[in-house]
Amino acid sequence: MIPLSLQDAALAAGGQLTGVDDPARLITGPLVFDSRDITPGSLFCCLSGKSVDGHDFASEAVKAGAVAVLADRSVDTAAIVVPDVLGAMAQIAARVASLFSGTVIGLTGSAGKTSTKDLLKSILELDGPTVATPRSFNNEIGFPVTVSGVENSSRYLLLEMGARGLGHIDSLCGIARPTIATVLGVGSAHIGEFGSRVVIAQAKAEIVRALPAHGTAVLNGDDPLVAAMAGDTNATVITFGFSEGCDIRAEQVVVQHDGRPHFVLVHSAGRRHIVLRVHGRHNVLNALAAAATAIAAGVPMDRIAQGLREAEISSGGRMEVTTRTDGVTVINDAFNASPESVLAALAALSDIADPTRRKIAVLGEMAELGDEAAAWHDRVAEQIIRLGPAKVIGIGSGHMDRMLTTITAAGLTAAKASEGVPLIEEITRVLKPGDVVLVKGANALGLEAVARELAGMPTQ
């Protein structure tokens, strides 16, 4: 964290210092809301949840190394007392961001945000010290935590921005205004809450409208709703995609049987052959977005190519591919399940399995799709039928029942996960050496832990 005194933090947050013996004492660590993450010099934020109240851990937090706590009422330790802890976190993070002299990069899209962030981070770290969103800290709680982690020595602050409604991204940009803004695509994630893809596009466009005139918008030129955002800014516009008209594009895309894509990265600065370590053909588009954003930041092409070749998806549950000693390959893509990401994961299953290996799909029902839910589950069912897996195990009801009925009517083996039987046991019973199994579902279903256990990896 760029050092900030307790006095300055209290002033930024509109709070009062209580139990503080030295108002000039510096906060040198980031904002923390989980007491297990406390580091010396950090500021512990006492958020109140449904089952846990951070105020109950205030004293322990200071004993563990926190300079003080951020609280909405008096506690028996050094504190900045504010009317609203979450709002104060944003205000303190905004103060830190105002002291940062490096490049702020914002990244959003309906799918692929975290994977693209990981790819881009790999590139930027070759160019200078980089602070990036950990895991999926892209909302009103995690975002200020990430911003507060930036240091004087940092060159880049890479921020993933999520939205579940209009105004959300605008609020995040109010904390840390990007000078480079990247929009990956407008899909159907949370369409039940937004109402339509047009409204989703309006929400995503907030990141572009926040740009200063000297900034750069990096837009998916193949997505009409994203490409149209060029009209929302006076900043420079760079496009990426597969079309000839895109500034950064991919040619000669090939996906090998291990699921890793090969392609030629094409830009006016030259052509580079790229072999990704990450799996799934959909990650070619994410790689293009990362490359275009790095170009906007002034990173040389050779460094961009190196970063892409070396990049791995460090955030769990996204195309984690593990092959066991018995030859079974487990694809853990269970962090989330937007419709587009489900279709992409099924394509990856097909690429990795090739015609010689049995395919098993473990799929959770897709949520938050509103009136489009039935149509999306039908579309997934159609792709599964084309894929021809040996077995489909579904988790959920309603639309999942309909999807499984469609699949079985096509002559494939599909059934809902058995009640009273651990899912890991049910999957294990149908596996044979050499099979490829995809585990994909919404984070709330907890399928990532199942996938990790299936792969023989420790659960997180």
Which percent range describes the beta-strand content?
Answer: 15-25%
* Helix and strand composition category: alpha/beta
Count of discrete domains: 3
As laid out across the biggest beta sheet, the strand order is 9-10-8-11-12-13-14-15-16
Q: What's the CATH architecture name of the largest domain?
A: 3-Layer(aba) Sandwich
State the assembly state of the protein chains: single chain
Give the overall form.
Answer: globular
Tally of DSSP helical segments: 17
Return residue spans where pLDDT drops below 50 for at least 5 consecutive residues.
none
Q: How much helicity do the residues have?
A: 25-40%
Q: What's the CATH topology name of the largest domain?
A: UDP-N-acetylmuramoyl-L-alanine:D-glutamate ligase
Tally the beta strands: 22
Largest sheet: 9 strands, mixed
Terminal Cα separation, in Å?
27 Å
Question: Can you describe what's shown?
Answer:
The chain is an alpha/beta fold. The protein folds into three domains: 4-83, Udp-n-acetylmuramoylalanyl-d-glutamate--2,6- Diaminopimelate Ligase, Chain: A, domain 1 (3-Layer(aba) Sandwich); 100-310, 3-Layer(aba) Sandwich (UDP-N-acetylmuramoyl-L-alanine:D-glutamate ligase), CATH 3.40.1190.10; 320-454, Protein-Tyrosine Phosphatase, Chain A (Alpha-Beta Complex), CATH 3.90.190.20. Helix content is 35%, strand content 21%. It contains 17 helices and 22 strands. The strands form four sheets. Strands 9-10-8-11-12-13-14-15-16 form a nine-stranded mixed beta sheet, with helices on both faces. Strands 17-18-22-19-20-21 form a six-stranded mixed beta sheet, sandwiched between helices. Helix 10 (224-227) links the parallel strand 12 and strand 13. Helix 3 runs parallel beside helix 5 (142-148). It is globular. The mean pLDDT is 93.
